[in-house]
């Protein structure tokens, strides 16, 4: 391998820049050329590709988003699209590809490698933490900290007015952000898709809070929760307890932005270097991850299909502490 291409793809996540920097600097360290593909897989198809030297990634370790930009690219899902991408890979003398993104991006990389034999290696970048093969994905810790900072502020006003807040957080079909931010912000109840909650359980939690003399109620709801969404939950609760002053906050895309936390910068730095070293060792169609503080490589087949599971111990703790 002489030249490595690097692309950020799918949804952006804080820490992608730190991962990109690590890939570029590791390439420079090992005397490899590095080329950045702009706008996700679209840049491969349109030949939007730039040479990246170690100084081109100065001052980005602390920045959210991705300087390469990212996109969802329908054309890369087609064989013709991937053929165009392959032609540009050849034109740019790229020998291997590092993809920083989520499982959709890894599926694309995997198909591309199977068809054209270009080695690909994934780095998990998504705030949702829903990728198998790593304890944490890049961006997850930053999103959690953004969420708890926001909930802390909401709690101030909730307490002052004796209000109940339903707060929707991101996470796609997974409850990692909701469960962890809910524990860290002292939520009265946490609703996540993995738990298969019943509305009665929510009402019980609210009643327990009232009996225990709680002045405010924070209910954290994962966006993928299956009871009908945060507005419906607020409506049903108001019907059951008309005396409550209930408000809804959807935190939305603020969760995707901001400076990456120290943990995300270190994770991204480790995985960026691991990706380059993995390719140099001849690994491909794998994702670099960190489990129990060790770098591990998980085959794309496995990373794409399997799910990270929620830790039941955290559900138990959340319940104990909300009483
Ligand atoms: P996030 O989890 O943050 O949304 P992601 O990587 O899962 O990130 P997707 O939109 O699912 O995001 O995928 C990103 C891009 O990967 C797609 O826009 C498409 O270009 C490519 N891709 C996804 N699935 C496939 C596939 N089956 N074949 C080829 N390319 C694919």
Structural class: alpha/beta
Distinct ligands:
adenosine-5'-triphosphate
Q: Main beta sheet: strand number and arrangement?
A: 7 strands, mixed
Strand content: 15-25%
Biggest β-sheet: strands ordered side by side in the sheet: 3-2-1-4-5-10-11
Distance between the termini: 58 Å
Please report the total strand number as a whole number: 11
- Give the averaged pLDDT, no decimals: 96
Catalogue the unreliable spans: none
H/E series: EHEHEHEHEHEHEHEHEHEEHH
**Tally of DSSP helical segments:** 11
- The radius of gyration over CA amounts to 22 Å
Shape: elongated
Helix content: 40-55%
Subunit structure: Homotetramer.
Pathway: Carbohydrate degradation; glycolysis; D-glyceraldehyde 3-phosphate and glycerone phosphate from D-glucose: step 3/4
Enzyme class: transferase
Keywords: Allosteric enzyme, ATP-binding, Cytoplasm, Glycolysis, Kinase, Magnesium, Metal-binding, Nucleotide-binding, Transferase
């Amino acid at each position: 391998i002489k030249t490595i291409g690097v692309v950020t793809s799918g949804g952006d996540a804080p820490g992608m820049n730190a991962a990109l920097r690590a890939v570029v600097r590791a390439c420079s360290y090992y005397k490899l050329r590095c080329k950045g593909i702009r706008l996700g897989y679209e840049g491969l198809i349109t030949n939007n590709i730039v040479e990246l030297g170690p100084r081109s990634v100065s001052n980005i370790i602390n920045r959210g988003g991705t300087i390469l930009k990212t996109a969802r690219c329908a054309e890369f899902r087609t064989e013709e699209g991937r053929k165009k991408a392959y032609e540009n890979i050849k034109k740019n003398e790229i020998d291997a590809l590092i993809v920083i993104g989520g499982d959709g991006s890894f599926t694309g990389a995997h198909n591309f490698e199977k068809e054209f034999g270009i080695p690909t290696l994934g780095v998990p970048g998504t705030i949702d933490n829903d990728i198998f093969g790593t304890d944490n994905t890049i961006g997850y810790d930053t999103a959690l900290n953004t969420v708890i900072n926001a909930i802390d502020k909401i709690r101030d006003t909730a307490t002052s007015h004796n209000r109940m807040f339903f707060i929707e957080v991101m996470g796609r079909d997974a409850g990692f952000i909701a469960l962890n931010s809910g524990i860290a912000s002292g939520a009265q109840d946490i609703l996540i898709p993995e738990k298969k909650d019943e509305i009665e359980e929510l009402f019980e939690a609210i009643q327990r809070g009232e009996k225990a003399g709680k002045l405010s109620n924070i209910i954290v709801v994962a966006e993928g929760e299956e009871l009908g969404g945060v507005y419906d939950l607020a409506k049903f609760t108001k019907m059951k307890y008309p005396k409550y002053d209930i408000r809804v906050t959807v935190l939305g895309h603020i969760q995707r932005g901001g400076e990456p936390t120290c943990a995300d910068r270190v994770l991204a730095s480790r995985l960026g270097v691991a990706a380059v070293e993995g390719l140099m060792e001849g690994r491909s169609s794998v994702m670099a991850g960190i489990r129990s503080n060790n770098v591990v490589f998980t085959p794309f087949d496995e990373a794409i299909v399997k799910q990270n599971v929620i830790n039941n111990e955290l559900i138990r703790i959340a319940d104990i502490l909300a009483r």
